[in-house]
Amino acid sequence: MQAPAAAERNKGPILAVLREYAGPGALRVLEVGAGAGLHAAHFARALPQTRWQPSDIDPQALRSIAAYTEAMRVPNMLPPILLDVSQGWETWGGTQPATLDLLVSINMMHIAELRCTEGLFKGAGVLLKPGGVLFTYG
Q1: With a threshold of 0.90, does the pTM exceed it?
Q2: How many domains is the chain built from?
Q3: pLDDT in tens, 82-108
Q4: Measured between alpha carbons, how far is 63 from 26 in angstroms, rounded to an integer?
Q5: Where does the chain have alpha helices with state H?
Q6: What are phi and psi of 54, to 5 degrees?
């Protein structure tokens, strides 16, 4: 399990803003580029009404996410999926059009290639429900 210091520092402030978009009803969330999984586990645990789907392109990150899920016992966090955001949304783990309430991407856009950011926005345009939110940070 990885524990980046920056993720530990900013998980509270990010969660505070996420709460503004995560109402009381059930929500389906896809996190693109979940990295080590600290944020995913923290947010899913704090927002039990969500069905949180973490993803990453790095197999090492996927193992870390799975370890966080198990260690923190987060029942509403799904097993992580391998996802390359630069590929079409059709390859995003079976996510269907207009089924997501939130699409979350933290600390990806400023380090990834432009095609990844373009893919994120294209995917958001198809996968978010009407009124759904693309939530980015970093």
Answers
A1: yes
A2: 1
A3: 999 999 999 999 999 999 999 999 988
A4: 27
A5: 5-21, 38-46, 59-72, 114-127
A6: -80, 155
